[in-house]
UniProtKB/TrEMBL annotation:
It comes from the Eukaryota. GO terms for biological process: RNA modification. The keyword Oxidoreductase does not apply. The keyword Nucleus does not apply. The lineage of its organism: Eukaryota, Viridiplantae, Streptophyta, Embryophyta, Bryophyta. PPR repeats lie at residues 57-87, 88-122, 158-188, 189-223, 261-291, 292-326, 388-418, 419-453. Pfam families: PPR, PPR_2. This is Pentacotripeptide-repeat region of PRORP domain-containing protein. GO terms for molecular function: RNA binding. PANTHER family: PENTATRICOPEPTIDE REPEAT-CONTAINING PROTEIN. Keywords: Repeat.
Length: 476
DNA sequence: CTAGGGTTAG
């Protein structure tokens, strides 16, 4: 702020402003200023740089580019970059890194290729940046080319570059190539192990990730919190038989003192729920000293998915009493909680137990589940999360499940964004509530609007057809 | 002087 009003007209002041600005963004002050005011400062400093002609100084230009990138203004950085007549390796690398940070592999590759055409020599940092940009499915074809450049360019024994290669292959879906590079490495560090373990975990190879977790320790490496966060992912732990090694990883984490690490505990809560042990999840959750919205959401979602609807809802209320504000994920978890609860009610029939159950959820036994749904809905609106398509879907589904088809339709009609799940939820809700005609016209409408029905959509609409005659079946 | 590999909920 003070910078914005400051007279910046001498070269030394210019440098000072630029450095202060970049420190503001890079250093510990980050976040204390709104990015809009940082951007404002940056453009003012930029103006002065242009007036003094310092924009052709590669060092100054690089600082300026960094600040723009940190403000999220990659296009402005690109403008500075393009105007720069003589670019050094820092400028090229910064530009590539900027695109990498903002998930723009095609632009990063364009700059990288331009660099090579103009005779620029990428160094290890350039490779780290371009590999980061290519660490996504669309980046694989480019990533392979860069792999060849790296092998020819003499970076075969550079641990960070090779680690970045492993990461690139893992993130772009080619886990086999990732493992190949990993196995070929003569030297590795903790990050290398974390990348490989995380890659296997993300691809659902939990058992393999776990054996690497043991192997790294045999080789003298000490797992850090990232190791635990990498291995304890839902995809790695939801397969049958995962619970055994998850508990083993948990024991290691406790022994190493990571049981006081909130993020590790969050991952444990989630993963225990996913591997079917809600009791272990609850134990971890209860033992936590600090909890954030992720902790609460993980626990609520875990309870919900394991048929502990009542507990999930009371935890949802408790979370808010403790001042933690639910986000989209929390509501999503609640939606699932409601589903499983109501599905369970249906399975069990209307037994007094279920009504008693609902009366705990809601003060009024007569409104039962619907009141509960409305309460969640009200809070979602209050939080401004009802416009989220996932929350909307959950609410449509919940209203249908509680038999309030009019509320479901109201929700459905009011949604600004719908996906195939929205349509299917509404159609099956109508179908199950004997509104076959309405379900069918919605089925036609969804296709007019360009949505392609999925198997569940057909299942719902075919159910309608069996009860209302065959005329519709022919149309389908 | 400047660029920098890995990170939990859905």
């Amino acid at each position: 702020m003070w910078l914005a009003g400051m007279a910046v007209n001498s070269t030394s002041q210019l440098f000072k402003s630029l450095l202060v600005t970049s420190e503001l963004i890079d250093g510990q002050n980050r976040g204390r200023l709104a990015s809009s005011s940082l951007y404002d400062i940056c453009t003012r400093v930029h103006d002065c740089i242009l007036k003094s002609g310092m924009d052709q100084n590669p060092y100054v230009a690089n600082k300026l580019m960094r600040v723009y990138i940190r403000c999220g203004k990659v296009q402005d950085a690109r403008h500075v970059f393009d105007k720069l007549v003589k670019k050094n390796v820092f400028n090229w690398t910064t530009m590539i890194g900027g695109y990498a940070e903002h998930g723009r592999p095609a632009d990063a590759i364009e700059v990288y290729n331009q660099m090579r055409q103009e005779g620029g020599r990428p160094n290890e940092v350039t490779y780290l940046s371009i590999l980061k940009a290519c660490a996504c499915p669309v980046g694989l074809k480019w990533g392979k080319e860069i792999h060849a450049h790296i092998s020819h360019g003499g970076f075969r024994s550079d641990v960070p570059v090779q680690t970045a290669l492993v990461n690139m292959y893992a993130k772009s879906g080619s886990i086999k190539d990732a493992r190949l590079v990993f196995d070929e490495m003569a030297e590795r560090n903790v990050i290398t192990w974390n990348v490989m373990i995380g890659g296997l975990a993300q691809h659902g190879f939990g058992q393999e990730a776990f054996s690497l977790f043991l192997q790294m320790q045999e080789e003298g490496f000490v797992p850090d919190s990232t190791t635990y966060l990498s291995i304890l992912t839902a995809t790695a732990c939801s397969s049958a038989g995962a619970l055994g090694w998850v508990k083993e990883v948990h024991r290691h984490a406790v022994k190493a003192g990571f049981d006081s690490d909130m993020r590790v505990c969050n991952a444990l809560v989630h993963v225990y729920s996913k591997s079917g042990s809600v009791d272990d999840a609850r134990l971890v959750f209860e033992g936590m000293l600090d909890r954030d919205v992720i902790s609460w959401s993980a626990m609520i979602g875990g309870l919900a998915q394991n048929g502990c609807g009542h507990e999930a809802f009371s935890l949802f209320l408790k979370m808010q009493r403790e001042g933690v504000i639910p986000n989209v994920t929390t509501y999503h978890g609640c939606g699932q909680e409601a589903f499983s609860l109501f599905l369970r009610m249906r399975r069990e029939g209307v037994v007094p137990d279920a009504i008693t159950y609902m009366s705990i959820l809601n003060a009024s036994a007569s409104t039962g589940a619907l009141g509960w749904v409305k309460e969640v809905h009200r809070q979602a609106v209050q939080a401004g999360l009802d416009s989220d398509v996932r929350v909307g879907n959950a609410l449509v589904h919940m209203y249908c499940k509680t038999g309030s088809i009019s509320d479901a339709r109201l929700m459905f009609d009011g949604m600004v964004e719908r996906d195939v799940i929205t349509w299917t939820a509404m159609i099956s809700g109508l179908a199950q509530n004997e509104c076959g005609q309405e379900a069918f016209s919605l089925f036609l409408q969804m296709q007019r609007e360009g949505f392609i029905p999925v198997a569940t959509t057909y299942a719902s609409i075919l159910n309608v057809c069996t009860s209302t005659g065959l005329a519709m079946v022919e149309e389908i």
